[in-house]
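*** Fold description ***
***
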Amino acid sequence: MSELIYLDHSATTALAPEVLAAMMPYLTEHTGNPSSVHSVGRRARQASADAREQMAGALGCQIEEIVMTSGGTEADNLAIVGVARAAAKGCHIITSAIEHHAVLHASAALTTEGFEVTQLPVDRDGLVSPDDLRAALRDDTVLVTIMLANNEIGTVQPIRELAAIAGERGVTFHTDAVQSVGQLDINVDTLGVDLLSLSAHKFYGPRGVGLLYVRRGVDLAPMILGGGQELDRRSGTENVAGTVGMGLALATAQAEREDRMRTSSALRDHLIEGIEARVGGVIVTGHRSRRLATNASFCFTDIQADVLVISLDLDGVEASAGSACTSGAVEVSHVITALDLPEEYLAGSLRLTVGAANTPEQMPRAVDIICGHIERMRMLAERSRGKIGAN
């Protein structure tokens, strides 16, 4: 096999060497518990504080407004369940039809506690309508949670406008910004959000660590109880090494954002333009311009997404489908379904996401491999239909 082409950076990114180097002393030498009063504990506590300062700088917030979590999923869950349970009155939550399952499942779980959930539709580009949000708000709405950028199709939502609409009614607004670091402005005041979720492994930081920004004054009921860490909002001994790694990765991503966007968008556009020029029966999913610089996503006719992804893997291209493959069948992603595409496109979704592992030289080869497999799969499908017709 020739050089591997990794086009799945939205799933996870490799830990940056400088981030690993910063973490190593807190994995091997300075291993104190930051809650301890002795010198080793104080050293760990200072390292954690320094990393939180980096995070606060990237977000434009106060250190006390950051809650460290085990990742984006926990951050989303804490935002949604924490705000809902802390609400003095009200039982209505608004989200969108294309959120990550961490948001959709957390919201759905609250219906067993008497909450109602409204899922806003999206248009064919994956955008939420501000008018739809305005119409959905009720006197008993306690939370609106809409992602900043979609993990499958890359569409970037008008979060500032949506948050302002919620704010006019005094409704708390949360955004899942897990896919956005290093690509979009995540300053919480610029966005106008009350809560924001991040996950370090999406921007070359360590796995198993994330954060939830909680604006001062927002009530949040804890989900994990114990020693009262994170100002009683999330108990558990702090992951010092993970916090140090996330702080550096976030600060680096913020500092390099413009360069990363410029490089990634050129790679992304090569994939989109190359595939569109080579094969017919293709729809580029997501908004053409309001999309992440790293994301090239498609739906094809006469293609089974799971078969295509496996075939690409065998040929050295690592990609993902917008479909969940289960028990030999393909379940079309809820994101793709929400776009209301023609039925013949639904089973053939493909997501390509570029990043630090990629070079311009890889893109023509990736296009050749992808289009070659699509052409072969369609030819085989046509032959199969011909044999069935002949019988």
